[in-house]
Amino acid sequence: MAKRSSSSIPVTLLTGFLGSGKTTLLNQLVRQPEMSRTLVVINEFGEIGLDHQLFSATDETQVMAMDSGCVCCTIRGDLAQTLRNATWRFAREGKRQFDRVIIETTGLADPAPIMHTLMTDERIATRYRLDGIVSIVDASHGQSTLNHHTEAVKQSAVADLLLITKSDLASPEEVSGLQARLSSINPGARQQRIINGEINARNLMGLGLLDADGLRSNPQRWLATHTATPPAFGAMQFSTAFNQQTSSFPGFAQGHTGSDRNRHDDHIRAHCFTLSTPIQRERFEAWLELMLSLMGDNMLRLKGILNIAGHNRPSVIHGVQHVFHPPMELDAWPDDDHRSRLVFITRDIPRESLESVMVAIT
Ligand SMILES: Nc1nc2c(ncn2[C@@H]2O[C@H](COP(=O)(O)OP(=O)(O)OP(=O)(O)O)[C@@H](O)[C@H]2O)c(=O)[nH]1
């Protein structure tokens, strides 16, 4: 089991639909001293217009299948090359000039190939780590974008931080309606409203398992909202967020509202499990491998902190589709709560499919 590496370079992925305000945000960010050692990687077809020394362009169209030939697994060949070369290209007298990377994608981009690139290329995975996914949603067009573009729903579903832009152009009701919808798509992501890209750069850092300085792990915050909802229930708790419909396992129905069945986000759910009995590692690995291969690209994201039987320290896992980082062992449990917590963000996977096998791993 790998130990976490706090020396690897954190990478923030900045997504958001066309015209949502990504460039406006980046222009604000690069003026802040916290960003002076951040390499900004932008798609070369985009408008560049960025006054920043550490800047590189990539070509998002160069998406290629991974060696496995799996249809849902693609990587970004150009990005892999950019990240591999960056450590010497942006170096002076043998010293790397950046300690952090932000990758901005075009509005239509699927975040999965970028996450696959960071996780599967050995030379990249050992040097860089995904710090977090930030998705921008335009308050004035957010609802209609989510209605019409499945990419936008996916970008929101996998985010760690959702930035709501242009709230000055929308009514308070429109903004709160959008925020409620985003909470149902991705209940674990923090939401923040910003106007004209104004935000402290530190708010975009440390969104993953490690804090902004890369020193301390913070699994509670990483998994926080997902696992906070259900009450304790013996060895296992379960909750599913589905367009404001939440239920817990078993007998913890918490009310729901109706929804328009044609919306893309009707297919996306966050499933959360809490297990108080230690997990049997071999059973868990076998189960995970089988389940992930069956789910393919319908597994949007997986995060978890695990209490593995026979281990005093917790392990964390995270993945996208069926590609995931091998479990990393943390130095210690962050508090007295030693239960395993797993969060799956899925598309079109009935909760029963996950629920029925969860008991088998303890
Ligand atoms: N009123 C208002 N306008 C904003 C805000 N944020 C961005 N804009 C404007 O929205 C337009 C699009 O912003 P960009 O930053 O170019 O958006 P983008 O996501 O980079 O766009 P693409 O690269 O085309 O996908 C620009 O005219 C911005 O000035 C905001 O909070 N309020």
Automatic annotation (TrEMBL):
Source taxon at top rank: Bacteria
GO cellular component, one term: cytoplasm
InterPro entries linked to this entry: CobW-likC_sf, CobW-like_C, CobW/HypB/UreG_nucleotide-bd, P-loop_NTPase, Zinc-reg_GTPase_activator
Catalytic activity of the protein: GTP + H2O = GDP + phosphate + H(+)
Keywords on record: Chaperone, Hydrolase, Nucleotide-binding
SUPFAM superfamilies: Hypothetical protein YjiA, C-terminal domain (SSF90002), P-loop containing nucleoside triphosphate hydrolases (SSF52540)
CDD domains: CobW-like (cd03112)
Cell membrane is among the record's keywords: no
Single GO molecular function: hydrolase activity
Function summary: Zinc chaperone that directly transfers zinc cofactor to target proteins, thereby activating them. Zinc is transferred from the CXCC motif in the GTPase domain to the zinc binding site in target proteins in a process requiring GTP hydrolysis.
PANTHER family: COBW DOMAIN-CONTAINING PROTEIN (PTHR13748:SF62), COBW-RELATED (PTHR13748)
Family: Belongs to the SIMIBI class G3E GTPase family. ZNG1 subfamily.
Protein name: GTP-binding protein
Natural source organism: Kushneria phosphatilytica
